[in-house]
Amino acid sequence: MIHKTSPDVGGMGHSIKRKEDLRFIQGKGNYVDDVRLPGMVYGHLVRSPYAHARLKSINTENAKKFTGVLAVITGDDLAKANLAWMPTLSYDKQMVLATGKVLFQSQEVAFVVAEDRYTAADAAELVEVEYEELPVLVDPKKALDPDAPVLREDREQKNNHIFHWEVGDRNATEQAFQKAAVKASVRAFFPRCHPAPLETCGCVADFNRATGKLTVYMTSQAPHAHRTVFALVGGIPEQNIRVISPDIGGGFGNKVPVYPGYVCAIVASLTLGVPVKWIETRSENLQSTGFARDYHMMADIAADRDGKMQALRVKTLADHGAFNAAAQPTKFPAGLFSICTGSYDYPNAFCEVDGVYTNKAPGGIAYRCSFRVTEAAYLIERAVDVLALELKMDPV
Amino acid sequence: MAKKQLVRVKVNGRERQAEVEPRLLLIHFIREVLELTGSHIGCDTSHCGACTVLLNGKTVKSCTMFAVQADGGEILTVEGLIKDGQLHPLQEGFKEEHGLQCGFCTPGMLMSSYALLRNNPKPSEEDIRWGISGNLCRCTGYQNIVKAVQFASGKAAQGGAK
Known about the structure:
Chain A has 396 residues and is of the alpha+beta class. Chain A has helices at residues 21-24, 61-65, 75-80, 117-124, 140-143, 170-179, 223-234, 260-272, 282-288, 336-342, 373-391; strands at residues 41-47, 53-59, 69-74, 85-87, 93-95, 101-102, 108-114, 128-133, 161-168, 182-190, 202-208, 213-218, 241-244, 276-279, 295-303, 309-319, 348-356. In chain A, α10 runs parallel beside α11 (373-391). By secondary structure, chain B is α+β, with helices and mostly antiparallel strands. In chain B, 33% of the residues lie in helices and 15% in strands. In chain B, α2 crosses α5. The longest helix of chain B is centred in the last third of the chain and has 16 residues, at 142-157.
């Protein structure tokens, strides 16, 4: 006889009811746009219509004169306070507001703060920006051409290559391929996809001048990492920053990176001494925040006639957009090698990844926690199917 | 700025009024003027349905209409579903059948389902899927949302709801 507890006691055999559901089904959730603080004002970003252009001039006079506008911040303003760039979670840095040039369409150029969100959006249209268009690179293969325009002029390295990562035994793998009776190859492109959580990104930054403490309410999947970045950028000791991540309307990886809007709201709150809310529109979310994938992958398997696999070779070209802001727990595309080699018995394997810059929004995030697992699993299973076809064997 | 206009509505049974800019979106009126933050903004373009409310008995996507267009109307939002402390069968269904994850689409899903059950108290699974086809759930929990609506429909059939 199976002993079962009563529904009141719960436990084995009973489904667990979620504590938060009672709030959510009654409209009593507390998402970031529901946060409303006394004296709160609103920020709106001016964004670049071009994917690659030199900034000739920015005129904020008309926007500043608009009734209800409290501040207009540009990249040059931030540069004076050494705030124009921020660190990413991937050993790179990213412009908070553009200085010199813009590197992707919808890049953040200026931040307008006003008494309400409609006024902020109106005044953002009054910011006059003069651009000089530059050649646009969207193909990561072309970005590696020796004569390709150098996108990131801030780097010492004068090309568009971000990183090279390799693991495994290159020589042993090559030798196994030279001797192989049968080879199977797959070339696969995993296009960019956007996590698109139903709630867009946003925050309320509240700097208290009396206590010197900063509270940031934000829809964040990585509040601790964000706090560290805010401390590094803003020069506020980390213990004086509190990040409150209220209810989150989905993330799927999109809410791990640090976005310029957060830093702009913090700077505006530091400057004005009042809470500043910044909430993205859906278009802004899709155009400027973390994409996933954009991987060009090649897999080759070497095998004997009887189907015994002898080696695996994987080469990946990773398009990370204008700034390497990928969110991953290590320097390397985490999990990729383990997944590539995990399901089959390869005596030899070699895997390499090259990351490159293009004129696209920063990408490379872990969509639904994939950490490149999805890409690798699909690639390897396709390659094994192709090998089975070559061998006239049942792929299953 | 254009001259403000008076908007009077009955929201969840209560008379409310405010002077607003003619361009103020209904969702901003509901969320920021009336301070009913249960309805959400997901896409600004009437694709996602997170802002769905009932206006004069019909579902509308409140991000794509002006508050002044609702003048004189009767609005029902997610906050108005509970009656005398009793959850609506749909709310019970969402809770019992795990019809939500992050909860952001939930208010819109509830309102679309509410309108569906009023017109069609015993919907088929296909009817339910049509009924919520204007609402997106990015956690992609549609299966349990359908079950939640079936739960409510079944409960109503037993006489548990109006």
